[in-house]
Amino acid sequence: MPPIPTAEARTVDLSSRSTLVDYADVAAAAGLRRVSTQVEEVPREHAEPIRRAAAIAVIRNPWLGTGTDTDLAPETRRVAPLLAKLLTDRLLDALGGADRIEAFGKAALVGTAGELEHAGALVHTPYFGNLVREALEGTSIICFVDGRAEPGELLRVPLWHKTAAATRSHYQTVEVNLVDAPHAGEIAVVATASTGPRPFARIGDRTTDQPVTSEILKEIEL
User: φ, ψ for residue 171 (rounded to 5)?
Assistant: First the structure.
């Protein structure tokens, strides 16, 4: 099934344009039903609270009704950059800019009428991931969750450090309440970020861990 045309296509420059206001053209092109931001604060003694945010876009599934032999690339190239821009603009606004962000993550849930690969096509390619990384000034691979779901899902999105993925203190999750999404013919796409680590992180770091192998099983004390 081809995408539903909304208006005659035109070329625009979104690189320096905010989508926080006046984004009707972007919404129409992406098939956007709703975009929202959830923010939470985790208090810390003698330090600023850790702020975590999730930006969520719910769109019409552009591949609805197609078969498993359908080439997903054209719609991925068209839609994924729009979602990356919509979501990162909101994360940057909610958390105070890229220099405040230390960890990030991503997720996609496809409705029951769609295919799992439809969710992956919107978050597992450079058309989404590279743009999110660049906007949030990260270098790490972005950890993720994907799947199929009905409306009302409580989604837990994993995050880790945006430039040092081995930094265990920043392994954390953000809970995202998808109250009315995704509908059967929709996909919910999420980008998440945090301004700090887990509170009271104290289990060491992967870069400084002592070597551990199955040899330790030979001297277990019970």
Answer: -75, 115
